[in-house]
Amino acid sequence: MVKQAIQRADWVIIPTIYGVEELKRALRGIKQVEKLNKNIVIVANSMKVAEYEEIKDLISGESGYPVFHIRNSKFVAEMLFIPESIEEKYKRG
After folding, report:
1. CA distance 25 to 15
2. What number of other Cβ atoms are within 10 A of residue 40's Cβ?
3. Which of 10, 59, 60, 81 has its CA 20 to 30 A from that of 17?
């Protein structure tokens, strides 16, 4: 079901936060997703500007995909750690 959703999506958003393991996870995610869909956007969440610039340069250099900065969004960070769909989060409020 996830594979089909990725294939059908107009864009796939891959969130990441600052940290070595988180970056490794994001880069692995990019490699897996790009087999199914090349329309990928990376969202750098809850980072200082300097951290974002470092992440942006690293990820863009490695993958070529755009990286956008969201300073303080709990929603994106929760997507990494709470196994709920967007629909389940919406219903929960």
Report:
1. 10
2. 19
3. 10
| pLDDT tens readout for residues 73-82 | 566 566 667 6
Give residue 40's pLDDT band: very low, low, confident or very high (50, 70, 90). very high
CB 71 within 8 A of CB 41: no
Q: Residues 18-38: pLDDT tens digits? A: 888 988 899 999 999 999 999
Give domain limits for the chain: 2-83
Could you tell me how many residues make up the chain? 93
Alpha-carbon dihedral 80, 27, 61, 11, rounded to 10 degrees: -60
CA atoms within 13 A on the CB side of 35: 7
Distance CA(33)–CA(29), nearest Å, equals 6
DSSP-derived secondary structure letter, 29: H
Q: What is the DSSP letter of 21?
A: H
**Can you tell me which residue has the tokens 């219903």?**
91
